[in-house]
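WARN retry 2 of 3 for item q-0093 after timeout on previous attempt; input resubmitted unchanged.
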Amino acid sequence: MQARSYTLRVLEILNNTPSLSSREIAEILGIDFSRAKEILERLRYSGYVEKAGRGYIITTRGRSLLAELTKQKTISPQNTVQEKQGGPASEEAVSSDKSVGEKRQEGKTEGQIQQAPETLDHVSLLVKQLEEFSKRLRELEVKIKDLDARLTSLENFAKEVVKHHDMVQHTGSQSSGEGQYVIETPVMNMNEAQSRLGSLLDKYLLEGRLIRIGTLIVDHVFYEEFKKKFPIKASEVSKLSNLEKTLLNEMRNEMLVILYAGKEYRLVNA
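OK item q-0093 returned
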């Protein structure tokens, strides 16, 4: 049986001869290959040795441990006296004391090495928890993007509803009684009306709520109120609003209005 622990022997062997394989170390120690492999793996997990090609080499940490174990070898005072006296039991006593000390140190070293798998298990658990957290975070990011897209869609829909509501809004009573404006701008060109109203344009034209005059679409309430201002003196045209001026020009183009004697505008069918 070896006086020194296998752990210490492995460190000494690799310190003197680097890059030995598990099988080579097993042959040197005279132990099974599996036993040598187990010792080397524990040392590797603890950072005392590391792989180098097909073999192992001792690390800086391993050399520090080897130096510490070497310094801690002690000889009892009784054996020292016996050795000085040259007694026959001197060598056996020293060997016995060495074995006890080395066994204690071996137990301490083995305990340090056995802590490595527990540490690795804890690290593995933390890694798994981190991966699970990352997975859940990615799932939340996908859900947030989906909610954001739905919110944008709802906002666009709300804008369309408000826009349509503005186009079909009611006004207060007019000078001739109760009335309403079908469209937000009571005078607009055909293209603008089609863009804003779409299929509703034909419906409102059939119902008489809107009137087509040349290239213009005019709200019937606005049109009826504007006709009440006729005849309009040519000198007072500048006082009309921009919408009324636009409508007046288009009515002249469509021969619905004439300039009588160069002084005033009159409706043709009035």
